[in-house]
Design brief:
The complex is a heterodimer of chains A (about 150) and B (about 675).
Chain A: E1 7-15, E2 18-23, E3 27-32, E4 46-52, E5 55-61, H1 62-65, E6 78-83, E7 88-93, E8 95-103, E9 107-108, E10 122-128, E11 131-136, H2 138-142
Parallel strand pairs in A: 2-11, 5-7
Antiparallel strand pairs in A: 1-2, 1-8, 3-6, 4-5, 6-7, 9-10, 10-11
Chain B: H1 3-30, H2 35-55, H3 58-75, H4 83-104, H5 114-124, E1 136-137, E2 152-153, H6 155-167, E3 170-178, H7 185-199, E4 200-206, H8 209-213, E5 220-227, H9 231-240, E6 244-251, H10 262-288, H11 291-296, H12 309-336, H13 339-362, E7 364-366, H14 368-371, H15 374-385, E8 389-394, E9 399-401, H16 402-423, H17 427-432, E10 439-448, E11 451-458, H18 465-474, H19 480-484, H20 488-493, H21 515-525, E12 529-535, E13 539-547, E14 552-560, E15 563-568, E16 572-579, E17 584-586, E18 589-594, E19 597-603, H22 604-607, E20 619-627, E21 630-636, E22 638-646, E23 660-665, E24 671-675, H23 677-680
Parallel strand pairs in B: 8-10, 15-24, 19-21
Antiparallel strand pairs in B: 1-2, 3-5, 3-6, 4-5, 7-9, 10-11, 11-13, 12-13, 14-15, 14-22, 16-20, 17-18, 18-19, 20-21, 23-24
Helix pairs in contact in B: 1-2, 1-4, 2-3, 2-10, 3-4, 3-5, 3-10, 4-5, 6-10, 12-13, 15-16, 16-21
Classes of the chains: A mainly beta (about 150), B alpha+beta (about 675).
Chain lengths: ~150, ~675
């Protein structure tokens, strides 16, 4: 990896005591939780749709997506509106309050352990002091074909 | 380049002029004596030429110029209108259209149009039709090396020659001999002609161009050429073409032409300089024609302005947001119950309602824009298929939303081709069955309720129910027994399955079984439906039903448990409240007897897996919906009311949800899903 210069600016959010990061370039906005209209007969992690300033936007609950137990939404719960090439989707997270620059040399490939998140969604991990940030591959998270069956 | 801003105007107006030319030419074919039509076409062509020259599209301008010459000759009664002449003019218009389209696509509008130009010139110089005065034999000059090259020139040609020599052109008679073993004589001739066109004007050829193309000559042919170039130069250039054996270039001097009626000379004199000037005046035309000239031709009756479609879209989007907020205001004012607020909101609703109608109507375009290319197409197809067709277009002024117009053209083309290819029989078959020789195809459009109907009706052979059932059985789409109980329309619906065709042979036009399923899909994607009625021996009718507007629709809001759903009003027949005890069962399916008909029930709670929170009542609220002639009763918990809503897409991510066609944003800001009733009715 190159020495220093390149740093990745990321949004940091948390799910169940773990911290995750996604590149700022993929984030459109961060919203408070609002009423989600359920859409029937979709994947369990698709919670429904919301009215985002006039645009009907689908919402995914990341806890469900990653097989973590679901919890009620609190004051700190946020919806991060992310965009990949052709879709804009909102993801529900427990908290979202950090923006940081991670320099490329702190990023390592994801460990081969079976954790609470499937390995294919991970781009890598970044080590900072005592914190470990898990970098997500958004395409794999959002892409509905690649869902491994998360039974409950 | 400052030309860019004029480019759009140029393309739009050219298309209009070409459309007008097409229409008038068809008209002219029916009334060949009507000179006013010729004048109309001439005007369109002339304007087109001016515009093209101003924009620098020389090929366009020169082809249009040739067309003009022919039209001029027609209106001066020098040429009679025959279908084959019109064929050539049509071809020229086609080429012009191709060039305009290539310009619209960013090309340069250049095209090799030599073949059409040649034909036009031939018509112009009278070789196409013999109609001119008796030709005067002109004695050749003394030193004639080729006795066979004596050409008979008529007065017209002589005048042309005379005029050009006065202008400084030389007139040559060039005799070209091809090598004996030349295989593709017509190709060689063509190449020689190409070369000659580059150096001057060809006035005549012996044998005629037709015969040359048919290779009805030995090895030798003679061309009369007007050119500024020297004889040696011309000879050299022709010799460069391969398989040329000999070239002899000879000056041609005409004697003074014998006296002629004055008018004829005048007329000829007009056209002749035009021919000669063509080469020189290309450049000067650019300066003399301005863009404003084409603008003044514009309005027929109504004043119009061109509006960028994007602006209309933006306007539409802004307006949709207004509709949502209007709904919200109405809700709030109802809750607050403040009289002044109520009044003001009411007034605002009324005004925005009017505004809504106007904006939606702005996007409406008459179907004429789609229909107007059909007469030409049908004419061509009819000739290709050797059938006589009388095409009637009714209701072309019916308007459709712009987005629908864009999509509806191709399906209609396909249906028309079908009607012509499979529907209408050949003239002898028709006469045998006691029908008129010409088949009638009616293209009809009209409004009804919230829909637009487009029908294609023919009095042809009709569709054989049995053949279709047989084919369907072969393809495993239905069993023999099942087939018997189907209605005619249901049977005919099989035709829309992919790969289905009862045509015995595949023609160039249709028969492959690929098109009708695409047609059906396109129409359904627009929110429409297509049905077939047919009677064997009498004819068929394909009927397309399309929604009037795409984005603002009326719905009935209903509640299912704690969730709100919207059902498009256009699908609803009626609402009803029934007692639970009225529900009957017919093979495991809940049904009710509704006005004498058995209607299956669909429990939305179950279908949409709605979390239950309220207990069931003895009375059920039902919404009876229909699809074609089938219906179903949707069980809901309560009716909220009727509302106009803005249709919003669910987006790419959620494109395939069962029985949900979209979403809308309600007055309280929440999203409600719109039910696709068609998916719920089997």
């Amino acid at each position: 990896m190159s020495e220093q210069a390149t740093a990745l600016k990321v949004i940091v959010f948390s799910l169940l005591d773990e911290e995750y990061a996604i590149p700022v370039s993929q984030v459109r906005s961060i919203e408070k939780v609002q009423h989600i209209t359920r859409v029937p007969r979709t994947e369990p992690y698709v919670k429904g749709v919301i009215n985002l300033r006039g645009v009907v936007t689908p919402i995914i609950d990341l806890r469900t997506r990653f097989g973590m137990p679901e919890t009620d939404y609190s004051d700190s719960t946020r919806i991060i509106i992310v965009a990949t090439e052709d879709v804009e989707v909102g993801v529900v997270v427990d908290t979202a309050n950090d923006v940081m620059d991670i320099s490329m040399d702190t990023i390592e490939p994801p460990p081969e352990i079976v954790g609470s998140v499937e390995i294919e969604y991970l781009e890598g991990v970044a080590k900072l002091d005592k914190r470990l940030l898990i970098l997500l591959n958004l395409d794999k998270v959002l892409n509905p074909d690649r869902v491994s069956k998360i039974e409950g | 380049m400052e030309m860019d801003q004029y480019l759009e105007v140029f393309i739009e107006e050219s298309k209009e002029h070409l459309q007008a030319c097409n229409e008038h030419l068809l008209h002219l074919e029916k009334e060949p004596e009507n000179i006013t039509i010729v004048n109309e076409i001439f005007r369109s062509a002339h304007t087109l030429k001016g515009m093209a020259a101003t924009m620098g599209y020389e090929d366009l301008a020169s082809l249009t110029h040739q067309m003009e010459n022919v039209l001029d000759a027609i209106r001066n009664m020098k040429i009679e209108v025959t279908p084959s002449i019109l064929d050539v003019v049509f071809k020229a218009v086609d080429y012009l259209e191709e060039m305009i389209f290539s310009i619209a696509d960013g090309g340069d509008g250049k095209k090799d149009v030599t073949d059409v130009v040649l034909l036009l010139k031939k018509i112009e110089s009278g070789e196409h039709n013999t109609e001119l005065n008796t030709s005067t034999t002109v004695e050749m000059n003394a030193e004639s090396k080729h006795p066979a090259a004596k050409a008979n020139y008529d007065d017209f040609e002589l005048t042309v020659i005379q005029q050009s020599t006065e202008q400084g052109f030389n007139c040559y008679e060039i005799t070209i001999s091809l090598v004996d073993d030349c295989l593709l004589k017509a190709a060689r001739v063509f190449m020689v002609f190409e070369v000659l066109e580059q150096v001057g004007e060809i006035i005549k050829s012996i044998p005629s161009v037709d015969q040359l193309e048919e290779e009805q000559f030995q090895n030798e042919f003679t061309v009369t050429l007007l050119s500024m170039e020297s004889a040696e130069h011309i000879e050299k250039r022709i010799m460069k073409v391969s398989e040329i054996d000999k070239v002899v270039v000879q000056y041609f001097y005409s004697k003074e032409t014998t006296s002629q009626p004055k008018e004829l000379i005048q007329a000829q004199a007009e056209v002749a300089p035009a021919l000669v000037e063509k080469v020189e005046h290309e450049k000067t035309e650019k300066e003399t024609n301005h863009a404003p000239k084409s603008n003044s031709k514009n309005g027929s009756n109504h004043k119009t302005i061109r509006v960028n479609i994007e602006r209309l879209d933006i306007l539409m989007n802004l307006f949709e947001e207004l509709v949502i907020d209007r709904g919200r205001l109405e809700q709030i004012s109802k809750d607050l119950n403040h009289s002044e607020l109520n009044e003001t909101v009411e007034r605002m609703s009324r005004i925005s309602g009017d505004l809504q109608n106007i904006i939606l109507n702005m996007r409406m375009v008459p179907v004429e824009t789609v229909f107007n290319r059909f007469p030409r197409m049908v004419r061509q197809l009819a000739r290709d298929l050797n059938k006589k067709i009388d095409l009637q277009i009714i209701g072309a002024e019916t308007e459709l939303d712009r987005t629908v117009i864009d999509e509806i053209g191709d399906p209609l083309v396909h249906l028309l081709r079908n009607a012509l290819d499979h529907g209408i029989e050949t003239p002898d078959v028709r006469l045998q069955s006691g029908k008129s020789e010409a088949g009638t195809v009616i293209l009809r459009a009209y409004h009804s309720g919230n829909h637009v109907f487009i029908e294609i009706e023919d009095d042809g052979a009709g569709i054989s129910r049995d053949k279709v059932i047989q084919k369907a059985i072969n393809k495993g789409l239905v069993t023999a027994k099942g087939g018997e109980s189907l209605t005619d329309s249901q049977v005919f619906d099989f035709i829309f399955s992919s790969g289905f065709s009862t045509a015995e042979k595949v023609s160039g036009v249709s028969g492959r079984g690929v098109g009708l399923d695409v047609v059906k899909n396109t129409i359904e994607a627009l929110g429409g439906t297509i049905t077939i009625q047919s009677e064997i021996g009498k004819g068929s009718m394909f009927s397309i039903q399309l929604p009037l507007t795409l984005s603002i629709i009326s719905v009935l809001l209903v509640e299912v448990q704690n969730e709100k759903y919207a059902i498009p009003l256009s699908s609803i027949i009626e609402t009803a409240i029934i007692k639970k005890s009225d529900i009957l069962h017919a093979h495991n399916q809940k049904v009710i007897d509704f006005r004498g008909k058995v209607v299956p029930l669909v429990d939305l709670k179950e279908i949409f897996e709605v979390p239950i929170s309220n207990e069931e009542d003895d009375y059920l609220s039902i919404v009876i919906v229909k699809k074609g002639d089938k219906s179903a009763g949707l069980i809901v918990d309560s009716f909220i009311g009727q509302q106009e809503i803005v249709l919003k897409s669910l987006g790419n991510y959620l494109s395939n949800v069962f029985a949900i066609s979209g979403a809308t944003i309600l007055g309280d800001g929440q999203v409600a899903l719109i039910i696709d009733c068609n998916a719920l009715i089997k």
